[in-house]
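Following up on my earlier message about tryptophanyl-5'AMP. Here are the inputs again, as you asked, copied directly from the submission form:
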Amino acid sequence: MRIVSGIQPTGSLHLGNYLGAIRNWVAMQDSLAEGEEAFFFIADLHAITVPQPPGELAGATREIAAALLAAGTNPARATLFNQARVPQHAELAWILGCTARVGWLNRMTQFKEKSGKDREGASVGLYTYPVLQAADVLVYRATHVPVGEDQKQHLELARDIAAKFNTDFGAAVFPLPQPMIPPAAPRVRSLRDGAAKMSKSDPSDMSRINLTDDADLIRLKIRKARTDALPIPATVDGLEGRPEARNLLEIHAALLGEPLDAVLGRFAGQGFGTFKPALAELLVETLAPIAARLHDLLAHPQELDRILDEGAARARAAAEETMRLVRGAVGFLL
Ligand code: TYM
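Thanks, got it. Here's what our run produced:
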């Protein structure tokens, strides 16, 4: 088993990242057996597919590294680094860009969403983003990739690219990476709009719970979260057409590691006036220790940089092993 996953440094870590991905990174890292490895990285190369202020990128990268450590990623068990310091990601992305087909990229929904109406004005990097993501995973010959549901299409593309490369070059270089999507919180939604996912790029901070939010802000955001006037139903069917209500109940279930049914059983017949304070306290209990560790870590930037230096060196060595096989398979004069 080789686990690989990444996160963009484009804002602070939020509850969707935590429940959809990071909590799973930590669980998988903690259950690695002898000889198995985990690589977790901050996707700064992906971040620049849309403009990033150069003066803020390094700080944002460090902050995400601190948040990942605070949430439980452990540099003694997993390799933690930022992507820009491992040039093999970009080298493999070029080679895999010659394997992937234009038709495959044209089907990627994220490009359509992110480029919006100005497709001609979007960067080429935004278009080829999924090829770099495939390279991120394949450069470590990953077997398992813990992600939220929104990354599923990208992972399917990575599998298609891996299979075509292996066939085209008659070499079994890449295993087909398996997405690991948590059943409890595959897609955490915005607190303001049940049709949208919770996201770092939502202009409204009230739409998300950040890992850096203090207890009062968490309580306020949950109190203001959109719901409806109906009581909490006894069964999942009763949540049909009520995405905001469902979202809050799913968050509760995911935090406790319980099925949604169990939470519904406990709160059935009650209104959100009773449920919301219970959810807010559960969030505060879960996130307060993470926020405290995060502040400690940010107070020691040299220690963070040391962890990222070591991680990048380990990642380069592992990625270089794969690149030797890839360059050989393609047939470059070396
Ligand atoms: P990013 O930075 O948007 O999100 C990081 C991780 O958090 C998950 N996630 C969510 N899960 C549930 N509900 C949500 N509302 C929610 N929002 C985010 C994402 O699914 C992701 O697992 N392209 C990736 C970064 C990346 C990557 C990779 C991931 C680059 N290379 C290689 C895996 C493997 C991204 O933008 O994630």
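One observation from looking it over: The longest strand covers residues 2-7. Hope that helps, and feel free to reply on this thread.
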